[in-house]
Specification:
single chain, alpha/beta, four-stranded parallel sheet, 3 helices, 27% helix
Length: 126
């Protein structure tokens, strides 16, 4: 691998969806609250720690969090999102990709300030 090569990692939905959709692919979890939604400790233990242990940091690009449509209010969503990013180490890079449902004028300030310079807070769709 070239020395300056970086890889981005999309964070799995076990951390990014508040409720499992009522779809067969979720089995018994369908329609249930996701207890691991924005669980910073799970992310640190199962994503960041293995990355550090493998000494992969020189090749680690941003971790991409994609949030799908949900029924949470802006406050219900931004408060845990801010808390989540507030607990993450600052020596990794993070990016947020959101679909067009994102509330206009939302203020997830800690989350937005945690997004690394040179990475993105993007809105997909219009």
């Amino acid at each position: 691998m070239p020395e300056d090569f970086e890889m981005c990692f999309k964070v799995w939905e076990k951390l990014t969806i508040p409720v499992y959709a009522k779809q067969p692919r979720y089995g018994v979890k369908a329609g249930q609250t996701n207890a691991r939604f924005l669980d910073a400790q799970v992310f640190k233990d199962f994503v960041l720690a293995p990355n550090r242990e493998a000494k992969f940091e020189p090749h680690t690009g941003p971790f991409i969090f994609e949030f799908q449509r949900h029924c949470m209010s802006t406050e219900e969503f931004c408060s845990p999102l801010d808390g989540f990013f507030g607990e993450l180490p600052k020596d990794f890079r993070y990016a947020v990709s959101q679909l067009s449902w994102w509330p206009t004028g939302s203020t997830c300030e800690t989350a937005k300030s945690s997004i690394s310079p040179g990475t993105a807070w993007t809105v997909n769709g219009a």
